[in-house]
Amino acid sequence: MGLYRRFLAPRFVDTICSPKALGAWRARCVEDLTGHVIEIGFGAGRNLPYYPDSVTAITAVEPSAIMRQRGARRIEAFGREFHWGGLDGQRLEVADASLDAAVVTFSLCTIPDAQAALRELRRVVKPGGELRVLEHGISPDPKIARWQHRLDGFEQVIADGCHLTRDPVEAVTSAGWTINSTYQRYAPGPKPWAYFTSLRAQS
User: Which residues, other chains included, contact 170 with Cβ-Cβ below 8 Å and sequence gap of 6+?
Assistant: First the structure.
């Protein structure tokens, strides 16, 4: 693993995912959740302040040591039960049907095999449990989509494997989840990076 990918890319990704403008999106993603939640692509814990009190525990999966270190203060402030669930969202160190819900924010774009990770979440979430996803992805506007395809290789280099051209709705559906609701729109910012999807699905 190169120095950029190990030390600089996590800081860059955390910075671009930290604007306060994303707070409303994060809050919408995790609202009304209850019980023990698994979050893959935990990053530096940017979602933790938005989890409702009804969430009693978090199991987090994050491969980057830098991100885990950056999230230490948020984990401490969270003040509820917290566990690390391994380093790889594609192979979770969690028992079958043991958790109440799953959350993925701005990570399906980067996980090498996103569908493998989504199938793993189906394995560890109880039957009828919920998946919440917040993600950027391919735009429905052909002009924007063409730019996304042009920029995708560059994006993968500077953002540690992040893709601009993935479709989170298709990924979730193909992994066997049943989507209950989808909210899609452009967020503030350059449009190739700003077409957001917030969805809810059940196992």
Answer: none
